[in-house]
Design brief:
This protein is mainly α. The chain has helices at residues 39-42, 46-51, 63-78, 84-109, 119-132, 137-153, 158-164, 167-192.
Amino acid sequence: MQTEPSLGPADKTPGDVPPDGQPPRAPDPGAVRPRQVSARFMLSHPLHLFSLGFGSGLSPVAPGTFGTLFAWASFAVLNRYLTVLDWGLLIVVGFFAGIWITGFTAKKLGIEDPSSIVWDEVVAFWLVLLMVTPVTLTGQVWAFVVFRFFDTVKPPPIRYFDRRLKGGFGIMFDDLVAAFFTLLVIALWRMSV
């Protein structure tokens, strides 16, 4: 049995020396360090409130799911007051404003596409609910499940867009594609019954 030789009294961890063998570089003082997502951070700027889905993105477990649940609940409340045209306008404005809003929050967090940013799920699931309404509660549950599948698993081409598109546009666009595939599955299911 072969063992690795000791590096001496000051053993180094594998991350101390980069793979190219060059000595480690000092951290860039101008680089943005990833920030902790908290209620304090969310309340530090109004745009963070939207990006983090009014707190739903603060969930330590499955923030995207909680963001989608927030979208569902807010749709149920707002649908009493908004017409289809109002919803269409809200979704379009929410998408384009979301590019700027989510990009701003991601930059402040120092993370390219933080899971705590759920405004993309909110807008995309509003679109799904708008397109399937009127539908029973069971139909809404299935829309939720199918949307979460596409948003979580990111099968092609969703994964392609998720990896290639950056910034706020990338954050928003892959969820829009997930919404499209959700609606496609629902349409195909409705045609088959």
